[in-house]
Amino acid sequence: MTVLTMKQCRQITDWVTDSTGKDGGQPVAVAICDGEGFLLSLVKMDGVPTKSVHFAQHKAYTAARMQTATDAFLARLQKENLDIQYFCDPKLAALPGGAPVYTPDGRVIGSVGISGRPSEEDQKLANAAAGLICFENK
Hints:
By secondary structure, this protein is an alpha+beta fold. It has helices at residues 6-22, 50-66, 70-79, 119-130, and strands at 29-34, 39-44, 98-102, 108-115. The radius of gyration is 14 Å and the shape is globular.
């Protein structure tokens, strides 16, 4: 069974904090969950607002539980005129910035949530961070 390792979590958080720390933009919080939405890693850059830490965790949780990026989840809610409360899960967040981590065969084995920047930028960062993890086919 393929799972995210702590080494891979560090790879993701190091890449995000290095990338965002050098561009002069706002600091971010980075949350990484396993495939079921349980928190594996949480990093908050100096100066990131507390609300961003909370949002990053919920974005990662949502990407794992719904097995899709949170911008796609938001689009689904809007397209189908659904209220997020219909899912009966108060941890779900319909905010862009969460992305699942897939195995080569398409299974979701984790997720990345990023918050602290404009929503579109959070989502781009999360997508790129989730794409850093590659698994060898065995």
